[in-house]
Amino acid sequence: MSTLLSSLGRWSFRHPWRVLVAWLLVLGIAGGAALALGKGTDNTFSIPGTESQAGLQQLERTFPQVSGTSAQFIVVAAKGDDVSEAAYRDPIERTVKDLAGIRGVLAATSPYDEHVSGMVSKDRSAAIVRLQFQGQSSTIGDGTKSALRHEVADLQKELPAGSRAVLGGDLFATSMPTLSITEAVGLVIALLVLIVTFRSFVVAGMPLLTAILGVGISMAAIFAATAFATVSATTPLLALMLGLAVGIDYALFILARHQDQVRAGVDPEESAARATGTAGSAVVFAGVTVLIALIGLGFAGIPFLTTMGIAASVAVAIAVLIAVTLTPAVLGFLKGRVAGRAQRAPKKGRTTPRRGFSERWVGGVTKHPILVALTVIIGLGVVAVPATSLALALPNAGVLPKGSEARETYDLTAEHFGPGFNGPLILTGTIVTSKDPVGLMKELGDAVAKVPGVAEVALATPNQTADTGIVQVVPTTAPDAPATADLVRALRSHHDQWLKEYGVDLKVTGFTAVAIDISDQLGAALLPFGIFVIGLSLVLLTIVFRSIWVPITAALGYLLSIVAAFGVVSAVFDWGWFADALHVARTGPIISFMPIVLMGVLFGLAMDYQVFLVSRMREDYVHDPASKDRATARAAAIRAVRSGFVGSARVVTAAAVIMFAVFVAFVPEGDSSLKPIALGLAAGIAIDAFLVRMTLIPALMAILGDHAWRIPGRLAKILPHVDIEGEAVERERHLAGWPGDDSVLAADGLTVAGAVEGLDLRLAPGAALVLTGRDDTERRAVALAVAARVPSAGRLRVAGHLMPARAAWVRARIGCVLVDGSGAPGAEDPLRELRDALRGRTPLVVIDGADRLSLAQSEQAAAMLRDAASRGPLAVLATADDATAAATLLADAGWADPSIRSLSEDARSAPETTRTPPSDDVSSRSVVVGARSTTAAAAPLSLTDLDEVTA
């Protein structure tokens, strides 16, 4: 991956206008699609498969008057007045009649209707008028809302002085998230941090510009997707928040590496390629972890949450793509003007440079690692204490800002009627077999009223066709109170009893019940999602760092970060600490999907910092000669912790501060649903970056010493090699001048585990070479290694591309023909394989077993080779037991004097335990092609094994 990204970075640097115009075209297309297709967001929450959702669907079919969204207005009489007096009753009833004629209103219920009860408060100080609509709140137009406001305003004018008429309810409880000036403050802070980091105004602005472009594309794509999927109003803001944060950080990582290299004297183009291949590889890996975690939100099985995760992952994916393409392209515009202001020279007389803060910090941490680790763990445990009282619920009008019409109605209703009136429950069931549906519903209503927690049964009636009945229940507690959730469970526990007694299969539903079901399902999904996330971190980090202890410490740190973030959110939104300063409208339960979203997002971001910090430590440890000796390995490991920390602390600190600034900017004036998520992310980032990754992890790594980098041999063999440190890029740079000629095939010390080792080869463009000697397995192993079909060690360059990093290119462009020669049914047709191999202008074709071709096949093969050679230089590597037959084939094809070499003379047979030849500075590491690795110990290969590999 690193070599591919390096090439991409070089190409982008050379063609900056093409890359910039391409991304602007993508922005234009996405923006046009959003304008043409966008249908707006929808805050309707649903959860298929639950009892509450099934009840709502049943009501939509049989009792539409109570299935859609609702609104209400409350009339509060002047002090000392009776709301039942004619001065109030007459204008209210006239308004009810007028409201019934407004488009979309299915029913307007007067509080004085003889069929309803409880709509006038017990002290007769207030009355509620309920309005029922067809469809959900997202389908009700602004014209209908304006007409409602107009009618209520007219009613207010008719009422006696000192009275109030306030409109609210579910229809007006949906707040549309908007941006405010505080989000811009976050960007300003990010810019200041970038200026300090890069010491250049021009370079500092680049991450912001690329991040804003990426966010623009992702926002447009999300709004265009509303034509095909239901997208909640919170989703775009979550994607915006994440897209800005990771977009700035990912560009920062690449730019910081590039700037350091340019300051060290590296050519800008070469530096851009290296930075994209090294830091860009870590960016891609970090981005993939965030994507997996966000897509994992689908674990909860809730459609709107799955959509939220996918939308946020789109924003992150675009941020990654822009980071590895547009960032090097912008560097191409700047060329060498990225060095920034030079560091301040040391004062006169100072013989040694002054130790920086990061060096002093990590020195203190690693000097007393046990004390530091215990302090951090205990401290974060204390911060997590408020999380024990964390309560979850979906948002309602009670969390809206004070002064809004829906919040005012909510508060007045709770004051005069009790909190339960803001979230009534509905019990519904089929009563088609009843001979007395009215009497049945009355009896059922009386039974429901006896359940503890029921304040009142407001309505118990059949529908007009008498096939469905409903019981409207007013709880004693607020919609988001835990006691209301207990009441829902209590009502459901009577299901079998009431079914046996009344013959009605009752379902508890209503929007309050839906919210409770969603909260319950989200709570149940936290454990499996947590296991998924932590298990994923263990697997990914084991692959990346080839260590057991590094993933364990990373997972421990993540757990501490997440519970501490939960504690901070709970302390603010539940306990009320600093609630006024953060403009929290009302303390109480937190939005249900906050924990799972926070777990998913923080996991990906925490892995970012883990990778950037610990990969530098691993690199320094591996390159330290003292790490090879058990006696000095521990000291080398501690040195690597310190040097790796110092080398990456500046960039990680800047990235964490930027993310914190972006997230915390959404808290003071942000949407009520997004506030707890933004605060949790801000707190989680600060805790994870500064306390866990930059304090606890170095302390634990110092305690573990060289044991941190050990891994069982068997596990090391089966793990794929993921190059996130750019080792392949460094190897290509180191071997850029090898072999020093124009050979289309060059090999030094070529080794295929279990088959052959120490083979040296050279093949000039347009030449032909026949390899003979040894057995079929060994010859085929060489042919497959040259064609990049099996992994190999040593130095190997094919058509100018160094293996194994460019194996994918070689496999795609270098033809390989395996001649079986048996003629058995099902055997591959060698001529067809050769025809496929010679398509295009391939510079090299490999033919294994050329002597096995029949006479007729040999003649046809020679003709194909002649035709291919006429289109451009073509080199041929053939293996054969009978070298004469293969040479004759090549001579017929136009190669007058093909070379013949015997493997028996040029290479040794590989023993069962082979060694990797020390051909360059990275050859001691395992070498990977695709997902298979060649390690220092491997079983011998057989011809059958090689056939299975190529298949």
UniProtKB/TrEMBL annotation:
Gene3D superfamilies xref list: Multidrug efflux transporter AcrB transmembrane domain (1.20.1640.10)
Signal sequence coordinates: none
Topology with respect to the bilayer: Multi-pass membrane protein
UniProt feature, compositional bias: Low complexity: 919-929
Subcellular location: Cell membrane
Pfam families: MMPL (PF03176)
Predominant subcellular localization, coarse grouping: membrane
Region (Disordered): 903-929
Residues annotated as transmembrane: 209-231, 237-256, 277-302, 308-334, 370-394, 525-545, 557-578, 590-609, 649-667, 679-704
Protein origin, superkingdom: Bacteria
Domain annotation SSD: ranges: 203-333
Protein name per the record: MMPL family transporter
UniProt keyword Methyltransferase present: no
Organism from which the protein derives: Microbacterium capsulatum
Keywords annotated in UniProt: Cell membrane, Membrane, Transmembrane, Transmembrane helix
